[in-house]
Amino acid sequence: MSDTVIEARGLTKRYGSNVAVNGIDFSVEAGEVIGLLGPNGAGKTTTILMLLGLTEADGGDVVILGKDPVRQPLQVKADVGYLPDSVGFYNNMTGRENLAYTARLSGLSHAQAAENIAAALEKVRLTDVADKRVSTYSHGMRKRLGIAELLMRKCRIAILDEPTSGLDPQSTRELLDLIRSLSRDGMTILLSSHILDAVQSVCHRIALFNKGRIGFLGTMEELAAKLGGGAFIVDVEADGIDLSKAVKSAKGVKSVTPDGDGQWHIETERDIRPELGRLIVQAGGDLRNMDLRRTRLDEAYDRFFKEYGNEA
Amino acid sequence: MKREGSPFKGVMTVALKEAADHMTSARMHLIMLLVLLTAIGAVYGAINHIRDTTSEDPFLFLKLFTTAQQPLPSFASFLGFLLPLVAIALGFDAINGEYGRRTMSRLLAQPIYRDALLFGKFLGALLVIAIALLTLWLLMTGLGILFLGLPPSGPELVRSIAYLAATLVYAGVWLALAMAFSTLIRSAATAALAALALWLILSVFWSMIAPLVAGAISPVDPYNPMTLLSNFETQQVIARISPQTLYGEVSSMLLDPSNRSVGPIFMSQLQGALINAPLPTMQSLTIIWPQISGLFAAMVLLFTLAYTVFQRQEVRA
Questions:
Q1: Are A217 and A245 in a shared domain?
Q2: pLDDT above 70: residue B80
Q3: Is the bond leading into B71 cis (omega within 30 degrees of zero)?
Q4: Domains of chain B: which residue ranges?
Q5: Domain ABC transporter spans what residues (chain A) (predicted)?
Q6: Which structural domain range is residue A237 located in?
Q7: What is the ipTM metric for this complex?
Q8: Do B109 and A101 count as a contact with CB atoms less than 8 A apart?
């Protein structure tokens, strides 16, 4: 399974003088789960809309499953499912009727649609409420109904825009489990989010968006390695000393961040606790506590946008 | 750039869904109740009036549509006034409603073109209006037969069916207008108000505006009788911008066989004519053909406007 299903080259979109997406290149292999990450307004949704042919690109081109979404939109859209950021349904219809409508639009026969819908609803655990009006559904149920639609249409590629936004932790976990199981069934999934934590567990690779560009594309480990620099963080509690000055020159220290009230986060390349301890004591400080931990990915992510944010 | 696949894929699915929605919506029920009540009132008044004057007219059945008994106006003028309201009620939130419910991006992600969505919505609403009109028409025919004991004759049937078709086109103009507003204006309430405002201007105030504008463009010179004619003609041209004027002319021509012209007529033209003798149906249709084409053109124009704007619209709200 190493055929490329999505290939984007030099994708560009301008709204007036504002460049929303500025020359993006990336490709997605079949069966992958790719996370598009970035702050709001970084160009994630615009990129997704261009992939689907719902917005015309100002430059560059896209090939999805060997087809051009601008020239052959029907064939592309038949195989690619899209779950919008704020997904809406017809409130006066039941969940099942809503799916039946889109099933007819995508050209499924009546019997085939009924069968697919029942299976999809079962999979997203909405069978019990399938015949209730969508107006009674919670936010999480609507998102799951949206996923049921993609399942029902048997899409090969699913593009989910902010699937976890606005969900409580429990629903988020359920949704991510669902995405994981879709991926196991062989679906290629593109999902966007502005919270790394929420999606890092399901993505094979991530693309970091910033100001209309992809700043990084690769696996979590590669991201950690690239940004890690200092792969360890020592949390120090000490009195009577300003670590910012005292330790800066020490060997192996990448940076020192004060955290108020005699606490500091020291980023290091390796475990330098013994040296640090000696240094603090020699400088006349009272060392109270010292903890070593690995850099968390979300810290790395934050730093990425701090470091690269001003470049673009 | 050529796109592949039929733009009509999904049109019928959208149309039938829209029609089903309209049929069951409270909005439609209310407005049809209004139309039905006024229609029955108008026909009842007409029947009472016709009873007294049975022997006067060979086209009694058509009189059902046009006879007015004070204070009620005739059925035809009722329809001319209320039908736009029905069409606006069905069309004002066609497109912006989908954005409001956030269903637009999901719908457009289905393997259909935008064309299908817009055209399907138009067809769906038009289908509902057609069903409502047919029901009204059958109701009137039934009431006429019941109370007057008089079945419609062949020419009468043809004329009233032609009238029905013209009425549908007239409703289509307003539906296209409402849908154009629903595409242009993001808020459904604003779109409804804009459409209603235009409806009020064209159906109530236009007949007052036309003479004023005509007076400014071609003023009447009391010493030159020809200026009187040109003033009248200018006035008529301006009045005909309103679809209601066109529809009024169509219905008066079709429903009254003795009508010979919609414009000014000269004594010389009447020479040898049998005053009040009915015109053949085809002749009436020929006279009124420009008006019908005008209505049709207005419908197509407004729909095209909505179509062009909708095609270029950004999907995200």
A1: no
A2: yes
A3: yes
A4: 11-312
A5: 6-236
A6: 232-294
A7: 0.86
A8: no
